[in-house]
Amino acid sequence: MDLDGRPDRWWRGRNKQRDTAFCQSIYGNGLRVAEWASVVIPELPPYDRRRHYYACHLSGACAKGGYGHPYWTPQNAMKGVAMSASRGCAWSLPFTGPSSVILESDRGLHGDSREVGAEDHTTALALLDERRVTLAQARVRTVNQLPALMRDLLPGGAPAQLSADQAATLLRAVRPAGDVEKVRTDLARDLVAEIRTLDKRLTENRACMQALVEAADSTLMSTPGIGPVMAVRLIGRVGRASRFPTAAAFANYADAAPVEIASADKARHRLSRSGDRQLNSVLHTIAVVQIRMPNSPGHAYYQRKLSEGKTAKEAKRCLKRRLADHVWRVMLGDERRIKCRLTATA
Fold first, then answer.
1. Which CA distances in Å does 132 have to 89, 124, 138, 272, 289?
2. Which uninterrupted H or E stretch holds 131?
3. What's the pTM?
4. Is the pLDDT confidence value at 133 over 90?
5. CA-to-CA dists, residue 43 to 21, 146, 245, 312, angstroms
6. In sequence order, what are the beta bridge partners of 101?
C-alpha cells in the first residue's frame, strides 16, 4: 500500500533485485528477511510513516504470493508479521509508532493452503513417511556407532561397511579378555540387535506403504524411478494436486522451477531453494534413477539435452522440471478419477 494506506500492487521497493526475490516469488520462504530488515528498517526514524510502509511490504514479501491484505491495528500491537504456509517462515519484528500493518496473503490462489476437512489416505501416508524417516535416521546413528566398537575388538579392525549379519558373525569369534572387552562385546551385540529390529520395522513400514498406495488406486508407481517410498512421500507432502492451479505452480512449490541469476550481460539459471526441499529431494532421486535407466523416457530426455550443449547439471535441472510436470499431471488425474468414481457410486 502507499503512504496514505491505499493498496499498491505494483510496489517495487528500493532495490528491484531484492524485491523480486520476495514479492515476485510465488513460493518464497523469506530466508533473506533478516538482511532486508537490517538494510531498510534501521535507516528510518521510529515514528516515520515510511518505516511502516517498508515494514508492510517486507512482511508481504515474506508471505506466499508476495501480496497480502492490509489490516490496521491499534498502537503498540505487533507491527510486522509475515504469514506463510506450514513449511514456510513466520517473521515478526516489534516497531513503535502510531500505526501498523499485519498482512496475510491469499495462499489458496497458489495452492499453498490446505482445506480443513476429514483426514483421508494422504494423512495416513504422511504419517508412514514421517515414521520411516525417523526409523532411517535411528538406523544410521546405530550403524555409525558399531565400527568404533568393532575396531577395538578385532585385530586390524573391521570393514567400514558391515551388515548386521556380518557383524554378528565377527562377534561370535571374539573372546573377551577382561571387563573392558566384555562391555565392548555386549554393547556391540546390543547395537546389532537394534539394527536388526530397525531393519524389520523398515521392511514392515515399506509393506504398509505399498498396501496403502495400492488401496488409494494411485498410478504414480507406473513411472520409472517411483517406488512405494517415493510415491508415499509425494502423496503425503502434496496432498491434493488440484490445489495447485497449474503445473508451473507445483514445480515452483517443489523447488523444481529454475530462477534466473543475472549479472551484467550474463544470464544464468539455478534451482530455487525457497520451496519444499523434501519434494525436491524426491524429484532429484527420480531423475537420477531415470538417468541410469537406458530405456526410460528420462534417460532419452537427459541425453537430448546434453546433445543440445547443456552441461550435466543443466540437463538434470531440465529433467527435474519435466518430472515435476509429469508428477502433477499423474496425481491430478488420479484425484479426478477417484472423485468421478465416488460421485458415480453416491
1. 25, 12, 10, 27, 21
2. helix 121-153
3. 0.64
4. yes
5. 21, 56, 40, 45
6. 72
Rounded Cα gap, residues 5 and 255, in angstroms = 34
Q: Any bridge partners for residue 259, and if so which?
A: 270
Evaluate if residue 105 carries a pLDDT over 50: no
Taking the C-alpha atoms of residue 335 and residue 242, their distance in angstroms, rounded to an integer, is 8
Q: Indicate the length of the chain as a whole number.
A: 346
Run of H or E including 137: helix 121-153
Higher pLDDT, 251 or 272: 251
Each residue of 134-144: pLDDT tens digit? 999 999 999 88
CB-based contacts of 249: which residues, under 8 Å, 6+ apart? Answer: 26, 110, 111
Task: Dump the DSSP string for 246-279.
Answer: SHHHHHHHTT-SEEEEEETTEEEEEE-SSS-HHH
Q: Cβ neighbours of residue 82 under 8 Å, at least 6 residues apart?
A: 30, 33, 58, 59, 60, 61, 62, 63, 89, 90, 91, 92, 103
Cα–Cα distance for residue pair 256/191, rounded to 1 Å: 39
- The C-alpha atoms of residue 340 and residue 80 are separated, in whole angstroms, by 45
- Which of 296, 335, 301, 332 lies closest to 315 in space, CA to CA? 301
When pLDDT is cut at 50, 70 and 90, the band that residue 15 belongs to is very low
Q: How far apart are CA 276 and CA 337, in angstroms?
A: 26
Apex 180 CA angle, 175 and 183, nearest 5: 75
> Between the CA of residue 160 and those of 29, 127, 196, 204, 244, what are the distances in Å?
40, 33, 18, 27, 45
Which three cell numbers, joined as nine digits, stand for 178? 577382561
Distance CA(56)–CA(22), nearest Å, equals: 13
Find the range with the poorest average confidence among 57-66, 153-162, 167-176: 57-66
